[in-house]
Amino acid sequence: MKRRLFLFLLVLGPFTIGCSSSDTSGTGGATGDLEWPPDATVYFDDHRVFNADCATDEDCAMALGYYHAFDRFVQMDIRRRFSTGRLADILPPSLAGLLAGDFADLRALFSTRTGVPAEDFLYEQSSPKTKALLDAYAVGVNQWISDLKNGENGATFPREFTARALEYTPDGVPPWRPQDSVAAVLALVENLTNDESAQVNAGAARLAIGDDAKFSDLWSRRPLEDSAILPLDWTPPAPPSSSIKASTDASSEQSAVGDRPNAAPVIERLARKLERTLDLRRMILGPGLVGEEIGSNSWVVGPSLTVNGNALLSNDPHLGMTQPATWYLAHLDAKTNGSGEIHTAGTTFAGLPWVIVGQNESIAWGLTTTVMDFSDVYIETLVEDAGGNPTGVMFNGEEVPFIREPFTINFSDGTTQENELLFVPHHGAVREIDAANDTAVTLRWTGNDVDTDINFLTEIAQATTIEEARVALENITTIGQNVVVIDPDNNIGWFPYNRLPKRTWATNLD
């Protein structure tokens, strides 16, 4: 049977549009064994919510990829470019040249501790089913890109990309890789879990104040009011002597910022750079989480308190306001008339083939921020060669050489700039170097260790009970979320699954 995607656009009344043939040129069509078009019926309801009735889960992912690109390609493209350091491709060379260092820093930030691009590592660690959905989604996006370049099926270049400040044309749109879907969400995860800027600013303030008592008065984690669960004068029991020794040994290598000689220049330089990156983020991605509105909430009402005897779940993730909006509502059904395992409805994220917050036939789930501390900033002592060039850092009394990864920035005029990204495997990216004072700053962020996280979206879409949802959520390492779930047996689950750094050096810190 010839497969065909039926498109119903209610804005102009229901009608169908034929699809172009499969294009395997690299801009559309096939990825692996997947080919366009999907076996799916797609329509938009009276509220213009996307609905897909599909033969398989992959068909739904393919259809969603096409319409995400049709409606939200600006978001998708900017997101993947931001986290992979590829914004220079579409900016005037004069402007891109000024920001080249920032683009290289972003590439380093969104990598593993050994310098592997995070989107590539996450994709390789994903299950075959997750990869299949990402692959299918990429086929859909690339078909839209093909339609755009060929002037077919109403695909038009987003007007945002025609601004004078950009140098971008339809012919310059690169193919969508399955890994780009991962890259598209990395900046959001980082925004929710990385406190590097706050920590660096605190370090700069401590150095500027020069008085630990005054600094503690301003930056202490003590409550504003005397309402702590434990008395304020409570002292935790001393750890075993072995733990004290281990902590002391560790802290001798990673001592406090204020104890480091000449740490001020490198900290102040990094603080300025992070502020510039924050400005770039706000300009490119929107405000994110700012002001007193930071936070999110989930509400669950148990079955004994509802009229129909079923538990109810309400969730508001409280993400920043953007235009277009962060979320894209969708209903994906590969079970009713198909052989798939996924039938979900809720909010999707342009760039990903899953419902992020929503429900399936059995369970519902919501996400809120954990506001846990996933990152630490370290002052490193540099190791130099005979010529005074930094070659690595000292860690626990031993020299650790830099891992050096090349990164090429491509400019819109065809020129390139070669960069070298530095990493130390025990912490991660080298964020700033001050060779004159033999110091450097590195970031230890658990987001650089993400591996199986994306699998949770595939598995929770298929879960039928709280227990199955819990197993799905065990894939999470660092997304900074509490996940609240209800199931048909009126069970309620709360799962704040996340990895946190082991801070052996922080014993008994106030």
Structure characterization notes:
With 510 residues, this protein is an alpha+beta fold. Helix content is 32%, strand content 22%. The chain is built from 11 helices and 18 strands. The protein has helices spanning 57-84, 93-109, 118-125, 128-150, 178-193, 196-209, 212-219, 241-253, 264-285, 455-462, 466-473, and strands spanning 5-8, 40-44, 50-54, 297-301, 312-316, 327-333, 343-349, 355-359, 364-369, 375-384, 390-395, 398-401, 403-410, 416-424, 428-434, 439-445, 481-486, 492-495. A 9-stranded mixed β-sheet has the order 1-2-3-6-7-8-9-17-18, covered by helices on one side. Strands 12-11-10-16-15-14-13 form a 7-stranded antiparallel β-sheet. Strand 10 and strand 11 (390-395) form a beta hairpin. Helix 1 crosses helix 5 (178-193), helix 3 crosses helix 5 and helix 10 (455-462) packs antiparallel against helix 11 (466-473). The chain is globular and about 70 Å long. The termini are far apart.
Q: Percentage of helical residues?
A: 25-40%
Largest sheet: 9 strands, mixed
Low confidence ranges: 1-30, 242-258
The largest sheet has its strands arranged as 1-2-3-6-7-8-9-17-18
So what's the overall shape? globular
Structural class: alpha+beta
How confident overall, as mean pLDDT?
Answer: 86
Write down the secondary-structure element order: EEEHHHHHHHHHEEEEEEEEEEEEEHHEE
Rg calc: 25 Å
SS elements, strand count: 18
**Beta fraction:** 15-25%
Total helical segments: 11
Distance between the termini: 69 Å
